[in-house]
Amino acid sequence: MIAAAGDTLADSVALALGWIAVTVRDRNPDHPRANRPIAIVALVNATILIAVTIGVAIEAILRLSEGSPAVLGLPMAVVSLVTLTVMVIGALVIGLSAHREDIHMKSVLLDTVADAAAAAGVLVAGVIIWVTGGLYWLDPVIALILSAVIGFVGTRLAGQAVAALRGATIDFDTD
Questions:
Q1: What whole-number distance in Å separates Cα of residue 153 and Cα of residue 102?
Q2: How much is the pLDDT for 96?
Q3: In whole angstroms, what is the distance from residue 104 CA to residue 110 CA?
Q4: Any idea what the Cα angle at residue 143 is, between residues 66 and 68, rounded to 5°?
Q5: Which pLDDT score, from 0 to 100, does residue 173 have?
């Protein structure tokens, strides 16, 4: 519950910062550094995503080494199914073409897709735990797999944001 609240707070801050960055950019879009606030916000989003991912990975490793606590598979699956639905709808609202837009929109889409992937992983683990009445270790294993994938993508985004801050033109169509 604390992780979900922290993720919601981080998402809210990222959206607010993005709105400010877009507003600043749109005041003088022809300025040579008009996209700098967008790249800064994308870097902040990527950094938060990487930090949360590292925290989840550490917690997953601790749970695997100390023994995974029992979890209720059915409620876990139901909540994650609702979350997955909301995140997929969110990704569709943002637009699947956002990955070709500015780096801020790419970071927002990435965070939304990462949340959907996490919900899908939790859904699978929840169903298996519910059906088998055990296998609690699946929860931290799914968390580790998702952490690796999301951490890789977040690191690439951070690299693109730093490159954009250094003045490089980022071609989003190649990702």
A1: 16
A2: 62
A3: 10
A4: 25
A5: 41
Tokens of 174: 């190649």
What's the predicted TM-score (pTM) here? 0.68
* Residue closest to 164 by CA, chosen among 41, 47, 10, 23: 41
In angstroms, the CA 133 to CA 105 distance is 41
Scanning 67-137, the segments in alpha helix (DSSP H) are 73-94, 103-132
- C-alpha 92/C-alpha 106 separation (Å) is 13
Q: Where are the domains of the chain?
A: 2-174
75 vs 13, higher pLDDT: 75
What is the Cα–Cα distance from 36 to 43, expressed in whole angstroms? 11
Residues 2-23, mean pLDDT to the nearest whole number: 68
Residue 141: both structure tokens together: 């294993």
* Distance separating alpha carbons of residues 13 and 17, to the nearest angstrom: 6
Helix 73-94 to helix 103-132 angle (10° resolution) is 160
Matching residue, tokens 């294993």: 141
- 1.20.1510, 3.40.1000, 3.30.70, 1.10.287: CATH of 2-174: 1.20.1510
112-162 pLDDT, tens digit each: 887 888 888 888 888 999 999 888 888 888 888 888 887 887 888 888 888
Report which of 21, 2, 7, 5 is spatially closest to residue 114, judged by C-alpha positions: 7
